[in-house]
């Protein structure tokens, strides 16, 4: 077990609602996230403020870029993005989905019997599903790269906790635009009963479409759930198929509906701004106590970054809730779902929730839930704290996640207060996105077997770090995939991060496959014509190349 210690945190004097420090300080916080280096880095995610087009600026989409005369356009029958390329594998996926739908029907029937009649259950389910989906907008549906039905495969979802609650809506913050107080990127692998939770720092500076470089939690303020989904998907380089949003009140009532949850609280919490006091040690928490644990930041002021510790506690509570739900009988599960519907917005249907819970029964949170927090480096600028993504550590973490491994190789525990900052579980891992088949927008999977033996298309490789030979190395690494590719120098050697640029959402899976072949990189959609290149994909090699 690896132990890390906290540090004094001048950032911790900020108020609970605003993200501005109370006073100016010249001493940056030095507490390091899991996997971060000790040297401050000021590299920013690829965005309009840093990255430059590889060629002359143009607003043309990828498909309208001028292609050399000697390049023959790819015809539909050879298009790796079509369902026809999947052949029998696609038909097999469809048969699997049909079996899943039968299983969903059986689970719904059990719920109906438990509730005492078909008519009562039908009205009950309709009302709860209406509660769940009340705030789902067309923009949210568009942002989610989701299949038509949940089919039991591995998927990514975004869990969002907002700073909205009944008290805030009626009090001094009435009429405010609420921000996402916490974000957790979650990978769910039902087949292997593995769940990975990566908390994202709300102050992470990232590119938000239409608004430039902003703090990550501003994506919710600007664009609601759809804005947050898009921002996180681009930053993490994964397709987000589902989401759930819960407000502060929800933690309390869901825990009470379950009759409390068993939690080993790492240290005593005494934080009036979080709601009060919670003893340290293993105990059964009621809803109010669980809420205090999930809100507490300033109880950790003397140890370091309060957001980091709070995120760890939120993952702890979510794991305890999952354990209690998965061990509940049908009646308790039904009452819990009813409580959830009052405070949760999600695209999941009740039958899908039951099917997922059934798939995950037997999951042991201590072994099967992996967790960590996004690695960042703090920067104090213009009297405001920002978190700069540690690109190299983040790429390492996300590559592990995509492979089905824990985000970190070992547990990370703060030696001063016992908080588990990262959990590697049993370390065994599940299966990778490629092997398991992460669900894509059209209901097919991203598993390599559905793409066909070889790829047709053109990949442009640009050396953006100035190291001799890296372009040729990239060519060799992607050669087995079958693309037509060439390598040359970029317009600058100052790129920090390797990116694989694609044009349309259905190309993301292929961009991720290229990243797997390269061994590093992040997928970036070329939405506004920021990158100009010939072909189907651009590989821009940065200083993180290994």
TrEMBL record:
Bias kind Polar residues: ranges: 1-42, 49-60, 434-449
Every Cell envelope-related transcriptional attenuator domain range: 179-326
One of the Pfam families matching this protein, by short name: LytR_C
Keyword Thylakoid: no
InterPro entries, A to Z: LytR/CpsA/Psr_C, LytR/CpsA/Psr_CW_biosynth, LytR_CpsA_psr
Transmembrane segments: 102-125
Chain spans, region Disordered: 1-65, 76-95, 420-451
Keywords: Membrane, Transmembrane, Transmembrane helix
Boundaries of every LytR/CpsA/Psr regulator C-terminal domain copy: 459-545
Keyword Transmembrane helix: yes
Family: Belongs to the LytR/CpsA/Psr (LCP) family.
Full protein name: Cell envelope-related transcriptional attenuator domain-containing protein
Origin species: Adlercreutzia caecimuris B7
